[in-house]
């Protein structure tokens, strides 16, 4: 969706502020939110793509106003209620009022090691890659209400395939309901003038990782 | 954990009573999910501890120091970073789809996730707030030199800049340039020059004599 999360190329957010010696978490609850998110994700009630989409679906005014882990909390609680893991009344009370819904699995201390390495997203291809390094491609001009990983600033732009990353899980289709969807993935590089016009910094190139359904030959 | 109750802060918009309200809501969520058996607080403790104490930029710094001293490792890292890193147990474990990109005299690389917060956390730890913030995500794909100026970094006008927007599950690690005057340094000494920001591209490796923050 064309949400506030799709920030590339927006202006007016002010300078980037580095925080020297920044701790991993700024409050106890931030770490709990991260851990809860990982442990609940392990139940396979929803996946990482759906979690990202849940954040994208927050009201824009909320997305920009709250802190990062507060946003995670809102998305996590929202998903958990949506999938029936708990009710709003239970969340308000801070106690369970009814039985648990069944989940595929729960994370034990024996499983916790699994959460320390990123999951693999490579998939066995069902067809050969349509593009190769050097190919000129045009990105799609799409504005789906659902989840997409094609940022607005890189839509309907001509670029060049630089790297074939392999066949990967395809988030757009997965969030739309096809849990097994996969697509070839490419690093596609754009000139700054193609993205930002003639006033752009000529020394800049930008690449995105683009799934094959985003691309047509140019 | 001494930072549990910091009343920050300049970098987010949650303040005072609002913050304690979030804290209470998170506690309520954890209580319900625990009572229903979906999560185990001991597992949550373990996950938090992992991200507070185990992973961090020190992991990436060791990888970079090895690349600076071992040409064969550097070549392997640039060809397939996941494979190169997992081949050496001293680096710990790393997920698939890690891509290393090398800074040179003529080419500088920077990494962003404009859509969310994708970051090579298994080699750098959790991303800093600025990396996840609207100012960085909005501006670096359009005005990377302006962003670098915010970090006090100026590159020669002739240096090409590539910004890698992490829009899929590939994760990018910048190999910064090795500082001059470090001939004969051990990997451990070299690693002390490799800052987190230098592996994202918003900084350069420290010079000999500079103190790592």
What's the assembly state of these chains?
heterodimer
The largest sheet of chain B, given as strand count, sense and whether it forms a barrel, is: 2 strands, parallel
What is the terminal separation of chain A in angstroms?
A: 25 Å
Strand arrangement across the biggest beta sheet of chain A: 4-3-2-1-5
* Unreliable stretches covering 5 or more consecutive residues of chain A: none
Largest sheet of chain A: 5 strands, antiparallel
Q: Biggest protein-protein interface?
A: A-B, 98 and 95 residues
- According to DSSP, the number of beta strands of chain A is 5
Uncertain segments of chain B are 1-12
The share of residues in helices of chain B is 40-55%
Proportion of strand residues of chain A: 15-25%
Going across the biggest sheet of chain B, name each strand in turn: 1-4
Helix content of chain A: 25-40%
**Strand segment count of chain B:** 4
Number of DSSP helical runs of chain A: 7
Structural class of chain A: alpha+beta
Which class do the helix and strand fractions of chain B yield? mainly alpha
**What is the C-alpha radius of gyration of chain A, as a whole number of Å?**
20 Å
User: What would you report as the Rg of chain B, rounded to the nearest angstrom?
Assistant: 19 Å
